[in-house]
Design brief:
By secondary structure, the chain is an alpha/beta fold. The chain has helices at 3-33, 42-62, 73-96, 104-138, 153-163, 198-204, 219-229, 242-246, 270-290, 292-305, 353-361, 369-374, 387-396, 413-418, 424-440, 443-459; strands spanning 144-149, 170-177, 191-194, 209-215, 235-239, 261-262, 311-317, 323-329, 378-380, 409-411. It has 3 domains: 3-138, no CATH class; 144-262, Rossmann fold, CATH 3.40.50; 270-459, no CATH class. The two termini are 52 Å apart.
Length: 463
Amino acid sequence: MQQRQLVLWFMLMDWVTAFFSWFVFYYFRKTSIEGVEFSVNETFYWGLVLIPVLWLLLYYLQGTYHDVKRLYRFKLFNLSFIGTLLGAVFIFFTLLLDDEISGYQQYYNSMFLLFGIHFSLVFIPRLIFISVIVNRIHSGKNGFKTLLIGGSDKAVEIYNEIINSPRGINQFIGFVNINGVDRQLENQLTYLGHATDLERVLREYQIEEVIIALESVEHDKLKAIIGQIEGGNVTIKILPDMYDILSGSVKMTNIFGALLIEVNAETMPVLQQAVKRLMDVSLSVFALIVLIPVYIFIAIGVKISSPGSIFFFQERIGYKGLPFKIIKFRTMYVDSEKQGPQLSSSNDPRITPIGKFLRKSRLDEFPQFLNVLKGDMSLVGPRPERQFYIDQIVQIEPQFLHLTKVRPGITSWGQVKYGYAENVDQMLQRMKFDLLYLKNRTLALDIKIMLYTVLIIVKAKGK
């Protein structure tokens, strides 16, 4: 069964259990706690309509539906317990607290009753559902479609270790080699081509997991391969060296699993991602309304400074490598790139007088709040680049493509630390900060970057 189907069945099951848990809770609350005959009122009907939806929203924000196929029983228990506790408290304060009671003991009893009934009704079906999925995966019937990269002795060793594991989760589709020579695995696995064919192989065979059979010290080869893969929905695993193990990079959830590092694990929890998007939308709406006088002033200045349009549109590469039109206040004279794409410099004669101020204060970026509302961008994220320059950068550093894993931002760690890049070398320097952000992103870090950006705007000291 495909991931999307599993999620839909999981959500349907949670909706049904949430519906019945509210019904059962309401019945026992009336008959056992309040000691009255069962009867329904407006709160009961509103509960039947809204409560299941609220539970599904809470579970979504928890990340329960993010990757159902990779859920395991202990994690499921934690998600169910914490989710039920949070949901029960919310329902208590929104729907139950204003009910007429004979004493506060009824409040406490209602709270514990709601928690107990909902947790029991939601966790048991979930446990059965996930147990069936886990058993199917371990039996080899529905394992993760896996591609092994490498054909050397090391690849043979890791392949044999995994398939001989008593509780394997991988369904090997085949392997691709790296140097065109090593094909020792051909007697055990289907040869699917060279590493240069990765994109075709991943797409054609719907690969869910990739295992790179190279030592993690082989940095150049690893960077080139990971650069081709990362950005999609494929889990990437590599072999650790002793430093990786001692530094805590290796995280194991299956005691029977092979010793591997998951290199593209998401660092920002799903709940924080949801809050981040909510913050993006709310702050962008606020900025677009409150800063209308600023926009008018800037628009007049741009129009007076030189002939041409007020706004500047340019195609950039965004989330998952998809192009979009970025919008900025125009800071250069019209037709400044007749000779092709050119990066600006500190004393670039193409920049208009007001354009210099706008670029130093970052005010030229303000129209991008519209890009944020459209979903093309975020408030904080790696700065988007043009395909022309991305093609040059990836020739030197393929890991630049990692930055397309998230929405690009109006501001970024690299932008705050390094400013506008004047050439590809400076783009590579700025990329280091953006990669660091990618591996450490949290809401707290986003807020810190935004505060530093505000200081740059106020002081007009941007590079």
